[in-house]
Amino acid sequence: MSTFLVEIVTPERKVYGEQARMVVVTGVEGQLGIMPNHIPLVTPLRIAPVTIKRDGGSDDVIAVNGGFIEVRKDKVVILAESAERAEDINVERAEAAKQRAAQRLSLAKSDEIDYRRAELSLQRAMNRLNVTHNKHIN
């Protein structure tokens, strides 16, 4: 089966760079499945897991916290605000971040900027935890 290069890059480092047969991302309009020779595309991404399907049936799952995906004929580049592989996520820190964000949400009013920040913090923490527990949706 045909493959293409997938790179996930943050401002700090290259998080991922492997050949894949398919990538599943969550864009602002919903989920996208990218396969080799896909039409060129650039779109923003939501805070959600990225699933990379590799030859041999193995999947790599990366917690991506926003950014953009650029699709070319033979390459996909994800420019993420932050991204972590499951094995790099500190579960205790992610759980603590989830608790802090939930507490901030309960204290903030829905029309305040603090509410939106807490909401985003909670989404990021849940994304990281879902990747570590392999509870992503394909």
From TrEMBL:
The keyword Transmembrane helix does not apply. It is found in: Cell membrane. Residues 87-131 form the ATP synthase epsilon subunit C-terminal domain. Keywords: ATP synthesis, Cell membrane, CF(1), Coiled coil, Hydrogen ion transport, Ion transport, Membrane, Transport. Pfam families: ATP-synt_DE, ATP-synt_DE_N. It is a peripheral membrane protein. One of its GO terms (molecular function) is proton-transporting ATP synthase activity, rotational mechanism. Residues 79-111 form a coiled coil. One of its GO terms (cellular component) is proton-transporting ATP synthase complex. F-type ATPases have 2 components, CF(1) - the catalytic core - and CF(0) - the membrane proton channel. CF(1) has five subunits: alpha(3), beta(3), gamma(1), delta(1), epsilon(1). CF(0) has three main subunits: a, b and c. Produces ATP from ADP in the presence of a proton gradient across the membrane. This is ATP synthase epsilon chain. The gene is atpC.
